[in-house]
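[User] Could I get a sequence and structure tokens?

[Assistant]
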Amino acid sequence: MKTWMLASALALATMAGAATGQSAPQDTSGLRKVGAEVLFWSQEKRDANFPHMEKIFPGHVVKAGGKVRALPAGKPLPFSDAELDAFIASQNIAGLIVLQDGKIRLERYARGYGREGRWTSFSVAKSFTSTLVGAAIKDGYIKSVDEPVTKYIPELAGSGYDGVTIAQLLTMTSGVKWNEDYTDAKSDVARMFLEPVPAGRTPPSIT
């Protein structure tokens, strides 16, 4: 486990230019445009593209480890099939799973999906990131979540994240100004993709 890999994951939202893995502006402008458009896709486009985003964006294949721990079944939650079906339909859910103490207490799928179905994770990655930070602390790569993020990503010094702790990033309480209105094409989250940002800099609108 590498500290820099974990620390970089913490600052992913501020390092939009690095997300594509390409450095030349002429190579990333098209990807930035598509990245901004993704935020405003219709449900039809989401259904068509979210299961295979690697066809749109470059990425890396991470192979599964050799030690895979199966999750055993736990005591089923007391919900009737009718209740679950109504909730899944009303929320347009494709998959639902509830874990408690390492055991599966509820697992249901809909809309043609199953255990092997694929869907882009987006903010689900936050949970994995926080888990990895915990592992990094246990292994001694990170001393504490109370440390400033600039200790591990010095390029953020002088930006809106200067003085922000790892814990504040993990809990999304950094205090950095940020407009994440997905109905506004001029919001910060949309501009993050559209406007090129020099390495080590955060978009002007959020500093």
